[in-house]
Amino acid sequence: QVQLVESGGGLVQTGGSLRLSCAASRNIYRLYDMGWYRQAPGKQRELVATITGGGRTNYADSMKGRFTISRDSTKNTIYLQMNSLKPEDTAVYLCNLKFRDVMDSWGKGTLVTVSS
């Protein structure tokens, strides 16, 4: 399993921006898909964005146009640029790495709080 550590969360006002980072303990191979998920209090964990080893991205509808996921394999890191943040974006954001059913690793998350 790969160790994943998220960082970059914090408190931001509505309309502000944050960039989250997820550092992996080993090389991010092109066969590995990675993504960001979030879980708010009282809600189910939901997809934020994913990125394949080939760089193909996918976003949840509510994040399209506001969030951008990127991947830097030389640094074993993925990022989530979050713009135009809203109070409903408040959640713990978790990083995920998945390779079929062979590997499925999660970080412990970083808290993003968006104040009104």
Low-confidence stretches: none
Number of helices: 0
The general outline is globular
Class from helix and strand fractions: mainly beta
Main β-sheet description: 7 strands, mixed
Mean pLDDT over the residues: 95
Task: Tell me what the structure shows.
This protein is mostly beta strands. Helix content is 0%, strand content 53%. The strands form 2 sheets. Strands 2, 4, 5, 6, 9, 10 and 11 form a 7-stranded mixed sheet that branches. Strands 1-3-8-7 form a 4-stranded antiparallel sheet, with no helix packed on it. A hairpin with a 6-residue loop joins strand 4 (33-39) and strand 5. It is globular. The termini are far apart.
Task: Write the topology of this structure.
Blueprint: E1 4-7, E2 10-13, E3 18-24, E4 33-39, E5 46-51, E6 57-59, E7 67-72, E8 77-82, E9 91-99, E10 103-106, E11 110-115
Parallel strand pairs: 2-11
Antiparallel strand pairs: 1-3, 3-8, 4-5, 4-9, 5-6, 7-8, 9-10, 9-11
